[in-house]
Automatic annotation (TrEMBL):
Residues covered by the Starch synthase catalytic domain: 5-194
Entry-linked InterPro entries: Starch_synth_cat_dom (IPR013534)
UniProt superkingdom: Bacteria
Keywords associated with the record: Glycosyltransferase, Transferase
A Pfam entry, by short name: Glyco_transf_5
E.C. number(s) listed in UniProt: 2.4.1.21
The keyword Glycosyltransferase appears for this protein: yes
The name this protein goes by in its record: starch synthase
Organism, scientific name: Chryseobacterium herbae
Catalysis performed (reactions): [(1->4)-alpha-D-glucosyl](n) + ADP-alpha-D-glucose = [(1->4)-alpha-D-glucosyl](n+1) + ADP + H(+)
Broad class of enzyme this protein falls into: transferase
SUPFAM superfamilies referenced in this protein's UniProt entry, alphabetically: UDP-Glycosyltransferase/glycogen phosphorylase (SSF53756)
Length: 256
């Protein structure tokens, strides 16, 4: 079904990340839908490992300049864009000096999770939502990939609940076996600042628990990895949200 507006929100995409299933799958899904005549946009974090020179990223001044308030602190939102190498497919990068300049993704050189991973996820989710609104581009389908993306539906169905901008968009969540880690114990206070409370994941805030929580806020859950780890598989089996087993990339349009 061409002529759909499809938004991919992801933490990984080839060639910006290599050697992961998620990065390869997102690349293939986005390109397939793009080549079939859909209007496709991709949003991802501008992690420090992504070379701006190599991939020809440039700042979009008209989209940058907003501030996202995280826990009463103003954080400037910078939007960069690039075309997927060799393709006419635009990839937007959410950037911020404080959150995304570092060279590692989620853990430091000793393997310890960054203390502000929760704030980075909140900033990413809100940054994507605000930028899409500024683009004046209303997606028909929002497809989430990667744990940071799981904060998007939570925000859309709580903080942005009275905002009708995304009211007709259908949200698909793909599940992947990502490395779990604790999130800051004060995340409840940070979310409460945005009037978000009552999440089960706040009892034990971890990356995986927020992904499991987000299953309740989407329209469809899909296995992004064919075989999920025990906790994710349990969450998948128990969710009341419509769901699909692993779908080959060539058949992803059946989900949409």
């Amino acid at each position: 079904m061409p002529n759909q507006k499809i938004l991919y929100i992801t933490t990984e995409m080839y060639p910006y990340q290599e050697d992961t299933n998620m990065a390869a799958v997102v690349n293939k899904m986005a390109l397939k839908m793009h080549n079939e005549g859909n209007d496709v946009r991709v949003f991802m974090p501008r992690f420090g490992q992504i070379s701006e020179r190599k991939f020809q990223l440039h700042e979009v001044i008209r989209l940058s300049g907003m501030n996202i308030i995280i826990n009463d602190l103003d954080q400037p939102l910078i939007i960069k864009v690039a075309s997927l190498p060799g393709e006419r497919l635009q990839v937007y990068f959410i950037d911020n000096e404080e959150y995304f300049k570092r060279k590692q993704y989620y853990v430091d050189d000793e393997g310890n999770p960054f203390d502000d991973n929760d704030e980075r996820a909140i900033f990413f989710a809100r940054g994507v939502i605000e930028t899409i609104k500024k683009l004046n581009w209303v997606p028909d389908v929002i497809h989430l990939n990667g744990w940071m993306s799981s904060f998007v539906p939570i925000y859309l169905k709580t903080y942005y609940e009275s905002d009708t901008y995304f009211k007709d968009a259908k949200i698909v969540l793909s599940l992947y076996n990502e490395k779990d880690a604790d999130l800051d114990k004060n995340i409840a206070e940070k979310l409460a600042f945005d009037n978000i409370s009552g999440l089960k994941a706040l009892d034990n805030p971890t990356i995986k628990n927020f992904v499991i929580e987000s299953m309740n806020y989407v329209d469809m859950v899909v296995k992004g990895d064919e075989f999920l780890d025990e906790d994710l598989d349990k969450g998948f089996n128990e969710t009341a949200t419509p769901k699909s087993e692993y779908v080959d990339v060539d058949s992803i349009n059946q989900i949409y």
